UniProtKB/TrEMBL annotation:
Pfam families: p450. Keywords: Heme, Iron, Metal-binding, Monooxygenase, Oxidoreductase. InterPro entries: Cyt_P450, Cyt_P450_B, Cyt_P450_CS, Cyt_P450_sf. This is Cytochrome P450. Belongs to the cytochrome P450 family. It comes from Actinomadura miaoliensis.
């Protein structure tokens, strides 16, 4: 991909960061960061610059000039999701974001918790609570965030399993592009008439908010609404699903801290969620591109070099977080970088936090003495999902006490 090779030697061999699970990832990132704040690693048959410190990752997110989101997203998610916010820059991005983001502001999101998030979490737990055991990934974490989006969009409850299939197929786009393209087309055909109806008779759902909101006289056109709604599945549901599963993994493998949270949820749940996001952010290794040759923070980067913003290395940077490899809910530190930074920072941060804290509170309330099933410790492991960018566990076999 690069027009001339990177001047630095490659630091890692034998694993491709675009497509593979990177074994012992955190140890590898720590070893690399001990040498330099960045590394050169194999990526999609080329070499990428992997940024490893909080300082560099934060600076890179804010530097849209050097690493524009619009240079990569049209190549990666563009074919399946269309021209989303992530493909836009400048005025177009500012206006689209301003029109689409009000429903996700902190004060509006607070209003979703009681009518939508809490009842939904209970509804899912009702299906398995009496059994005393379940795989929380299969029965809760993979279901809840997609259902949240469906309910916020005001979609009919009987369509939820179809929506879940589309969300799943969109997620696996890099490995099964045909299924993802079909899901994208079917979802658009499905949502078209709903959108037309909400334009005629707006309600209080998210689709209505997106079509009625205007900023400086600008409203979203149909294709802009479609692209935003398609983006909600990979950007909003899959990330939250992995974040919840990662926090649960952390707690289930640190039973003393799980007990602390369960005993005083009001005091600890929010901090457990932040610490989960810091310890294992779902978007661990975010790919970008450097379209023009430059020297950036002392790194010579040829034109068209793939970049990887290692959010997970940044959130375990000892310069910012003391004893960073320890999962510790009493740390009382946020992990905002999990949501990116700069102009493309996550539009759904407050919704994600509300979903995560509500889900964790409900699970702890409904599943007393939550713990891993005996003998399953070695199967509970956070690995790369769909290439190295995203991370989460595949199973979480849990038990709890029943009455
Ligand atoms: C824990 C859950 C979540 C995490 C860790 C997360 C993380 C991120 C990150 C890292 C970015 C920046 C990507 C980049 O700069 O290339 C981003 C962007 C975005 N996220 Fe989230 N996200 C989460 C949940 C959500 C939710 C619930 C929504 C629903 C509204 C959402 C909507 C978006 C959108 C629309 C963007 C694109 C913003 C833009 O390009 O201007 N995210 N997210």
């Amino acid at each position: 991909m690069g027009t001339r090779p990177l001047a630095d030697a490659v630091d890692v061999n034998g694993v491709d960061f675009a497509f593979e699970d990177v074994p012992a990832l955190h140890e590898l990132l720590a070893d690399l960061r001990a040498v330099r704040p960045y590394a050169i690693v194999p990526f999609a048959g080329a070499h990428a610059v992997l940024l490893l410190t909080h300082e560099l990752v934060s600076a890179a997110f804010k530097d849209e000039e050097t690493f524009p989101a619009a240079a990569i997203y049209p190549l990666t998610t563009g074919p399946v999701l269309g021209r989303t916010l992530q493909c836009m820059s400048g005025t177009e991005h500012r206006i689209n974001r301003a029109v689409a983001s009000p429903p996700f502001r902190r004060n509006r999101v607070a209003r979703y918790v009681e009518p939508v998030l809490e009842p939904l979490a209970h509804e899912l737990v009702d299906r398995f609570a009496e059994r005393g055991e379940a795989d929380l990934v299969a029965e809760f974490t993979t279901r809840y965030p997609v259902l949240v989006i469906s309910r916020l969009l005001g979609l009919p409850v009987e369509d939820e399993s179809t929506v879940r299939r589309w969300a799943h197929d969109l997620f696996y786009f890099p490995f099964e592009p045909d299924a993802a393209m079909t899901a994208s087309r079917e979802f658009t055909e499905y949502i078209g008439p709903i959108l037309a109806e909400r334009r005629r008779r707006p309600g209080d759902d998210l689709v209505s908010m997106l079509v009625t909101e205007s900023v400086d006289g600008n409203r979203l056109g149909d294709e802009e609404v479609f692209a935003f709604l398609r983006l909600l599945f990979p950007a909003g549901a899959d990330t939250t699903m992995l974040a919840l599963a990662n926090t649960l993994t952390a707690l289930l493998t640190h039973p003393d801290q799980l007990e602390t949270v369960a005993l005083a949820p009001d005091e600890h749940v929010t901090w457990a969620v932040w610490e989960g996001l810091r310890w294992e952010p779902p978007v661990g290794l975010l790919p970008r591109l450097c379209p023009r040759a430059t020297t950036w923070n002392g790194i010579d980067i040829p034109a068209d070099t793939p970049m990887i913003f290692s959010i997970n290395a940044a959130l375990r940077d000892p310069a910012v977080y003391p004893d960073p490899y320890r999962f510790d809910i009493t740390r009382r530190e946020t992990a905002m970088l999990a949501f990116g930074q700069g102009p493309h920072t996550c539009a759904g941060t407050w919704l994600a936090l509300a979903e995560l804290t509500t889900a964790l509170s409900v699970l702890l309330q409904r599943l007393p003495n939550l713990r891993l099933q005996d003998g399953t410790e070695e199967h509970v492991r956070i690995t790369s999902q769909v290439g190295a960018a995203l991370r989460g566990p595949t199973v979480l076999p849990a038990r709890w006490n029943t009455a």
